[in-house]
DNA sequence: TTGTAGGCGTTATCAA
DNA sequence: TTGATAACGCCTACAA
């Protein structure tokens, strides 16, 4: 592979001049620039990004930590981040945390050791205190889908409490008053917030929150089936089921049918996140939209603005969920 | 951040010695090694991976190009690749090609300019000739889910023809003889192979292939609904529908119900890929399993073996699809 | 507008 | 077993 040195020789100019045209420094005469460009083309020259990084202390890469690489939620998020960053010539280094504290810390270490210019984290298991500490370090850190106290400027987050409220309010509006709730893992902030919103909506309508109609799931399909099974075993009456995410709602729908339910007549179900697949359940899932793709691009813009000093980036830190009405939630008969 | 130089000073040894302990070179006395280790700990030293890369010409990163970051198929694939590579201390740089020739080439360029040690490609739009040419270059290249003529050692692929055959054979075995087929985009090799398998099974049972029962979809949900709509409009009779992937099958299922079908009684449907969600359609989707996650780890192992010279890596280049029986395919009544 | 020279933090080749 | 010292390919004052 040709180096800057060979280009300079062929073009008959100095290293510095070649470097200038590579970096689009305007202080080069058009004539010289053309000579250099020609030489680069002739040699098939490509800058060595590693050497650039070492010399400039900028790696043009941003680290991303997500819980999982698969799954509709993270897919949308990564797609949003990557497309925005890629368009700016930055690349993403992606790793996973699997929602486990050790693995998340491990992943962060990994990213830091890779000399990213910044890292965007979707962490769930690690504590706020740890993150606050992390932010004191040299590596710029940003958070997706998580609001860390005192670090608002570093966060792109969804108002999960409002989403939880919206879901429950919609259910109540359809005349339901016996409502089961399958929550996400309560060590996850968004799961906790959604539950809080649920309780607020309940309280607002003077419906007591009942422990026997509450189940803590795992945010996966199994959480939905396990939860529903739990409620069914307990012989509680309920006409609606709220799931803290769409995967659990899918699991619940599938399981409900296995148990002989006719949906949505026998049971109304609402989800959360509006993953792509939500419109392909039967009945089509009524859910709360989580604009995670948009939030991904926003996180990327935040990095572009703060780290790479790009202008004209208007940042929205906080997003609001909205109700998506489909067929799985109907009036209580 | 501390450098190797500061460590050497604190430990009272030379740069070279510190470098040796970093690289686990055994030609260092235990005593010296300990001194160095202590110094590193005291300074919180972390090797600068960029400098390492520049000096050693190894970046410890492998580039991945997938069509999309979202979507159940690519999620599984990336998860497989990443977990295997990450365990070996390598990192992945992920970018997208969107199944468009220009963008795929662009992504490959991008990855090459990033000095990856190798790249793993899931490309669909680019020609075999281009890939063969690419392989002549300096960058080691591997292919996921695609068999390039003459580059078998570089490929991890699925026998799509067999999968297509299996699907159709299963449908025929259930007594169906009027069978509609929604294919994937025919510029994609796997879509073409699946169709070939379909035709072979048809021929084997002396069922003529009918153009009027063929539709070329887009591998997305819309392909399923569009295709089914097309067949319905054409007033053809058919008792079974084969979709070349699960997303299209989902779309078809949803659309069939909108058109008043009772599934699977009125229409049997089979998919391909066995994405996670396939068990949550209604009826649960009978499909062909595509072990893409496993194939991802295999691609990673291939790189680990060939590029990073890891031992004990047994490689399987070719995978076989299997039938997954659920509820969407039943006997012709 | 262009060139010179030092430095970025390691690895690797020789010697010792 | 250890230590000098020259790469690695590029950026960036500083000088001209």
TrEMBL record, chains A, B:
One matching Pfam family is LacI
Q: Does the keyword Transcription apply?
A: yes
Question: What are the entry keywords?
Answer: DNA-binding, Transcription, Transcription regulation
The record's section on PROSITE patterns has:
HTH_LACI_2
Q: Which InterPro entries match?
A: HTH_LacI, LacI/GalR-like_sensor, Lambda_DNA-bd_dom_sf, Peripla_BP_I
Q: Where is the HTH lacI-type domain?
A: 2-56
Q: Which domain of life is it from?
A: Bacteria
Q: What name does UniProt use for this protein?
A: Repressor
Species name for this entry? Answer: Colwellia marinimaniae
- Which lineage is the organism of this entry classified under, starting from the top rank? Bacteria, Pseudomonadati, Pseudomonadota, Gammaproteobacteria, Alteromonadales
